[in-house]
Amino acid sequence: MTFSVTVLGSSSALPTSSRFPTAHLLNANERFFLIDCGEGTQIQLRKYQIRFSKINHIFISHLHGDHYFGLFGLISSLSLLGRTNDLNIYSHPELEEILNFQLKYYDLGFNLLFHAIQDKFAGLIYEDKQIMVSTFPLKHRVASNGFVFKEKQKEKNLIKDMIPYYHLGIRDILKIKNGDDFIDQNGNVIPNQRLTHPAKEPRSYAFCSDTAYDPTIIEHINGVNILYHESTFAENLAKRAEETGHSTAKQAAQIAHLAEVKKLLLGHFSARYKDLSIFQQEAKEIFSEVENVIEGHTYKIE
To answer: 3-state DSSP call for residue 146?
Structure first.
């Protein structure tokens, strides 16, 4: 199963000639989840040849324009392209009011289903057979939420040779895959670990933008495979970061270290920076597995 994220935008409030505002696309077995939708997101989707029609769920972290101003154009384009499938949007309640006003006189041709995230809410907001999406509050100037996308735990893998050896039927196989031991016709208990290989660990991706340094989020992102954490400023502007409800690269690295994540991606860079190498350099002083995001690059979790 594919599990990867493509970065469509890496700039903060102001786009630059080479960096778009925030948008990420998670691919979970060719089902696409759009996370934030800054200005120009649909241009980036076209540029990187991602089909709009595959996006059925959009998650908006907060209502600052660089995180949702691309939503109206994307919805319009989906309508013009003849979409008929429902489109689900998850965000704070105020966004529904904004969308209703913008789309009041527009016949979309499909249902726009809004799922409100209440201020300070933490918990599950989406689930299907393969993946769960949870949210948690961030520390910003307006209500802001992060998201964790996690695969569900798969069943154990049955050792094939055990089927004829113990004459296992379908019911036996299902129970064993779910973790049960097996009792043979003589009443002997065969331990589950003798019959199975462990299932692969579920993969996970956490998205944290925008937020000031906030250790309370660690419980929500602990141990994820990839953490994306905003790093708007370098350390010499730590005071400015605090004033504006943002983080430095070092602070993002500290969160990654405390949460014991496998990999850290830095983004949401202030437009004042032309050379972004300082972000990775400063973060590496605390956490080694770190990269600055590159727009158009897909980060795979194998």
So the answer is: strand
